[in-house]
Task: inverse folding
C-alpha cells in the first residue's frame, strides 16, 4: 500500500511539474472560472434573485466546468508521442498511475477553487463569517468525487475518436449528485442555517467519494490493458 | 435462427394487451381515458430498468470472462433500453399534464432517475460508436455500464432529499394491491408482453451484431 501511494505521489509530482512549467491549463481554468462569475452575475435579474442566493449554484456549476478543462489535460498530455506507454511500462501498478493522476487533478482543481471561492465572496458580497470551515470541507469532498470520476473518463475519452468532446457527455451525469449536494449544502450554510441541516448532503458527498474512488481505481486497469 | 418465433409472439402479445387495455379494462373513475397510458408507461419503465440492470450484469461478467457474446448482449440491451426509456419519458409528461397540471417535476425521484438512465445510456451508445478497436470498445463500455449502475442510486438519493409527488406504487406495496382486479390483470399482462417485446428486440439486435462482426471479419481477411 505504501509503495502504491509513493508511486502515485511521484506520478502526481510529474504532472504538477509539467503544469507548473507551462501553466497552460491552470491559467485557462482560472480565467474561465472568473469569467463564469461575471457571466452568471449578468445573466440574472438582480432585483429578482439576490447575489448571495445565486452564489451557491454559480460556484458549483463553474467548479464542474472548469474541472473538465483540467481533467481533459490529465491524459491529453500522455497522448502526445504515446507518452502513456512509458508510464504503463514503468514498474508501478496501474492503480498507482490512476491515483497519481487523480491526485494531480485534485491539487489542480483545489488550486482553481482557492482562487475562485475568494473571488466569489468578493464579487457576490457573501457573508462568510463562520461558514468558511464547512465550506472548505464541502469543496474538498466535492473535489474528490469529481476527480475520481473525471480522471477515469479522461483516460477513456482520449482514446476515442471524439476525444475531448466525449468527456463532458460521459462525466456530467456523474457530476450531478456532486453539484446538487454541494450546491444545496452551500445554500443552507450561506442562508445562516446550522451545519446540521446540511449534514444529509455532506453524507451524500462522502458516500459518493467512497464509492467512486474505489470503483474508478479498480476500473482503471481495465481501460489500459493490451 | 434460434427463437425465430419470438418477435411474432411478442408482437401478438403486445397487440392483445393493447386491445384488452383499450376495450376490456374499465375506465378509471377520476382520470378517465388518461389513465390508460399507465399500461404502456409502467411496463416500459420496468423494461427500461431491466435492460440497464442486464447491461450492468453483462458488463461485469464480460470483464471477468471476456466472452464477446456478453459484449454484444450489453450493446443490444442498452440500445433497446434507450428506446423503452424514451417511451417512458414521452408517455409520462403526456399523462402528467392533465393529471398533475405540469409536464415535469424535478423533485420526483423516479422521473429524474429515468432521465439519467437515458443520459447515461445514450452516452454509452455514443462511446461505443467512437471506438474502432472491438476489444477496447468492449472494455470501455463495460466500465461505463457498471459505473452507470452505481450512479443511479446517487441520483435517486439526491432527488429524494427534495421530495416526491409521483403516485405511490399501488401494486408492489406491502398491503394488497389497491388496483381493481381487471386493471391489475391488464397491467400484469402488459408487463409480460413488454418483457417479451424486450427480449424479441434484443434478439434481433444481437443477431444484427453477430452478422456485422462476421462481415467485418470477412472484409479484414480479404484485405
Result:
Amino acid at each position: 500500500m505504501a509503495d502504491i501511494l509513493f508511486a502515485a505521489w511521484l506520478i502526481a509530482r510529474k504532472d504538477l511539474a509539467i503544469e507548473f512549467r507551462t501553466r497552460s491549463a491552470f491559467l485557462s481554468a482560472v480565467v474561465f472560472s472568473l469569467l463564469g462569475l461575471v457571466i452568471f452575475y449578468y445573466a440574472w435579474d438582480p432585483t429578482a434573485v439576490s447575489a448571495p442566493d445565486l452564489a451557491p449554484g454559480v460556484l458549483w456549476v463553474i467548479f464542474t466546468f472548469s474541472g473538465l478543462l483540467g481533467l481533459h489535460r490529465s491524459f491529453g498530455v500522455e497522448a502526445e508521442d504515446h507518452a502513456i506507454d512509458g508510464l504503463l511500462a514503468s514498474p508501478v501498478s496501474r492503480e498507482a498511475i490512476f491515483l497519481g493522476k487523480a491526485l494531480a487533478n485534485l491539487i489542480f482543481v483545489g488550486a482553481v477553487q482557492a482562487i475562485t471561492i475568494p473571488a466569489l465572496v468578493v464579487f457576490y458580497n457573501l457573508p462568510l463569517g463562520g461558514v468558511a470551515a464547512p465550506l472548505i470541507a464541502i469543496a474538498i469532498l466535492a473535489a474528490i468525487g469529481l476527480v475520481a470520476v473525471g480522471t477515469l473518463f479522461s483516460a477513456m475519452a482520449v482514446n476515442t475518436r471524439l476525444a475531448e468532446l466525449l468527456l463532458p457527455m460521459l462525466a456530467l451525469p456523474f457530476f450531478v449528485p456532486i453539484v446538487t449536494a454541494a450546491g444545496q449544502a452551500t445554500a443552507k450554510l450561506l442562508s445562516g442555517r446550522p451545519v446540521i441541516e446540511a449534514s444529509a448532503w455532506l453524507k451524500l458527498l462522502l458516500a459518493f467519494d467512497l464509492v467512486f474512488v474505489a470503483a474508478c481505481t479498480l476500473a482503471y486497469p481495465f481501460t489500459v490493458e493490451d | 435462427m434460434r427463437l425465430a418465433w419470438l418477435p411474432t409472439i411478442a408482437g401478438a402479445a403486445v397487440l392483445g394487451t393493447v386491445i384488452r387495455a383499450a376495450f376490456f379494462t374499465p375506465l378509471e373513475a377520476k382520470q378517465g381515458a388518461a389513465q390508460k397510458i399507465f399500461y404502456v408507461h409502467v411496463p416500459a419503465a420496468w423494461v427500461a430498468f431491466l435492460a440497464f440492470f442486464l447491461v450492468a450484469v453483462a458488463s461485469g461478467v464480460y470483464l471477468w470472462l471476456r466472452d464477446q457474446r456478453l459484449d454484444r448482449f450489453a450493446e443490444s440491451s442498452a440500445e433497446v433500453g434507450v428506446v423503452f426509456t424514451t417511451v417512458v419519458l414521452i408517455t409520462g409528461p403526456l399523462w402528467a399534464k392533465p393529471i398533475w397540471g405540469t409536464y415535469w417535476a424535478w423533485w420526483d425521484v423516479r422521473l429524474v432517475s429515468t432521465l439519467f438512465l437515458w443520459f447515461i445510456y445514450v452516452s454509452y451508445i455514443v462511446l461505443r460508436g467512437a471506438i474502432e478497436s472491438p476489444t477496447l470498445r468492449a472494455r470501455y463500455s463495460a466500465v461505463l455500464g457498471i459505473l452507470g449502475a452505481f450512479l443511479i442510486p446517487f441520483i435517486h438519493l439526491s432527488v429524494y432529499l427534495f421530495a416526491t409527488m409521483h403516485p405511490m406504487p399501488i401494486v408492489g406495496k406491502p398491503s394488497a394491491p389497491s388496483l381493481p382486479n381487471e386493471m391489475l390483470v391488464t397491467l400484469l399482462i402488459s408487463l409480460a408482453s413488454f418483457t417479451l417485446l424486450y427480449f424479441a428486440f434484443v434478439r434481433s439486435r444481437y443477431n444484427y451484431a453477430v452478422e456485422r462482426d462476421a462481415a467485418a471479419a470477412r472484409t479484414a481477411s480479404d484485405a
Notes: Chain A touches chain B through 30 residues (CB under 8 Å). Chain A is about 80% helix and 0% strand. Chain A has one domain: 2-224. Helices of chain A lie at 2-22, 24-43, 51-79, 83-89, 94-123, 132-157, 166-190, 199-224.
